[in-house]
Design brief:
Elements: E1 12-14, E2 17-18, H1 31-37, E3 54-55, H2 62-65, E4 71-74, H3 87-99, E5 104-109, H4 112-119, H5 124-127, E6 132-137, H6 141-152, E7 158-163, E8 180-184, H7 196-209, E9 212-217, H8 223-226, H9 249-260
């Protein structure tokens, strides 16, 4: 989507896939769907087709074009492991992450079973790369517990949880093998309430387990007013990002040419 992002825990978003479908309570007030559907039918707009699932081959090489290293939220407007995507489409995105390894990629999914399957098979080599972080969404215990287990069973170098929107007290979390936990409340029209004690519980568990903790927002209809302080402090921990040199412009141009020569121009 953009070389720059307003999302507090990343630098940039990258959407070589757009669109998704709802699968659990955390999807009820999906910000991405709300945004995309505003532009359905607008000729020439990136979301002319609303939130319909599609690949966007012309965006695939974007990380190779950016002039300095970034933390990159992959498919902020979709889900890389959506069941309607074929394996080849997923592998094409991961190929770029492997080529442009001076960035740090944050991949987040609710389709944790497919993540586990591919990270233990076709994407096994990419799973072990320290510059690609693999995460699952956890909005409640019913859906989140199994997603966490799937993530833990995948051979990922860096695993993280996005506990947003947090919809209930999660109780005791299994943080074995987890490097990072992001917590946030729902925002926008119809936002469901967030109890501070739910957040404190996760914060304290992360402290005890030595897991990086990031509190993103209280949310609500006007999230700018509610802010992101918890007990008088902001919590901005992020795992260390592996330092990697940026290739020369000429080398990056060669990588782009190589990639585009093997990528379809439309989808």
């Amino acid at each position: 989507m953009s070389e720059h992002s307003k999302i507090e825990w990343t630098d940039a978003t990258w959407n070589p896939i757009r669109g998704c479908t709802k699968i659990s309570p955390g999807c009820a007030h999906c910000y991405a769907e709300t945004f995309a559907e505003r532009f359905r039918g607008v000729p020439g707009h990136p979301y002319e087709r609303g939130f319909d699932l599609r690949t966007v081959p012309e965006k695939l090489a974007d990380p190779l074009r950016w002039p300095r290293p970034r933390s990159v939220f992959v498919n902020s407007m979709s889900d890389l492991f959506h069941e309607a995507l074929d394996d080849a489409s997923i592998e094409a995105v991961v190929r770029v992450m492997r080529l442009a390894d001076w960035h740090t990629y944050q991949v987040l999914t609710k389709r944790s079973e497919r993540l586990q399957t591919l990270l233990t098979t076709k994407l096994r080599d990419a799973a072990r790369l320290p510059h690609i972080w693999w995460g699952v969404s956890v909005e409640n215990h019913r859906h989140g517990a199994s997603r966490i287990r799937h993530l833990q069973d995948a051979p990922a170098a860096v695993r993280f949880l996005s506990v947003e929107p947090l919809l209930e007290d999660l109780g005791r979390l299994d943080l074995e093998g987890i490097s990072w936990v992001i917590v946030g409340g729902e925002s926008g029209h119809g936002a469901r309430p967030l109890d501070p004690d739910w957040v404190r519980s996760i914060r304290d568990q992360c402290r005890a387990a030595d897991v990086a903790f990031f509190f993103k927002q209280w949310g609500g209809v006007r999230k700018n007013r509610t802010g992101r302080e918890l007990d008088g402090a902001t919590h901005d921990q992020i795992p260390p990002r592996p330092p990697r040199p940026l290739p020369s412009l000429n080398d990056r141009r060669n990588l782009i040419a190589q990639l585009e020569s093997t990528t379809p121009t439309s989808a």
